[in-house]
Amino acid sequence: xxxDFLKEIASFIEAEDIKIDEMMNxxxxxxxxxxxxxxxxxxxxxxxxxxxxxxxxxxxxYFVLGNGxxxxxxxxxxxxxxxxxxxxxxxxxxxxxxxxAKAAALLGKVARKAMEEGLAGLExxxxxxxxxxxxxxMNAGAYGGELSQVVTKVKAxxxxxxxIELEKEQLLLGxxxxxxxxxxxxxxxxxxxxxxxxxxxILAKIKEYTKARVEKQPLEYPSAxxxxxxxxxxxxxxxxxxxxxxxxxxxxxxxSEKHCGFVINRGNATATEIKTLMENVAKKVKEExxxxxxxxxxxxxx
Length: 302
Known about the structure:
The chain is α+β, with helices and mostly antiparallel strands. The chain has helices spanning about 1-10, 45-55, 105-115, 130-135, 200-215, 235-240, 270-290; strands spanning about 20-25, 35-40, 60-65, 70-75, 80-85, 90-95, 100, 120, 140, 145, 150-155, 165, 185-195, 195, 225, 250, 255, 260-265, 300.
């Protein structure tokens, strides 16, 4: 099955963009993860369309990879196809107060571009390490802001290779969720409406948020950012701290002593250690406070 699939995609994807058993620890911010059976980089909508059609024809599992900043791939790897959007999917354009950005553009780049044009509304995103496409999938947010506040429309591709446009009300943007969590659409472009502002004030806000991140978050270690979603009426980090789990370790995976909402890789953690730690933390918090912690991190593999 994979042999036939590889033969087909070799007709439209360059050899250097097709990798077999590519280690995923090179592509995730946790810096863990075993091999993906196939790792493809696509550089155009046409190549993405042909890839999706081939995946459907051979009934192969696949995952569209962004910046890997919210992903935990198992040590055994991913028995499927990783589809990575190339540099051509990272363009950003601004017309007046409207921004059109492609899915692979990093949130930091998008926020800085807005700042340079004197447009406000994306300051919160400047320090989020993910891609814009991945950010929309989970309606990323920080410091009281989230993408749902600025996104107006999304251009995507369905599994049949057809281009669709989804208006804001169709995106089902909620707390760390969207329609893309339940529908297998690949985000291509995101349209946003921003507000005119003062460039210096926008930059000052970005610097303020950056300073807060550096002071409060364990940025010196590999992690996936906030590990758990915020339970209604609570803060995950405080629940974990109050459960006595600050600094709790499983191997080289650790609850950050700096911010208990973060699980970090102290250097040589495995995906299994991270997953075990997350499960133990959730169990302890449930026992102590009766609150269910739901992972914000996407887990792939066994």
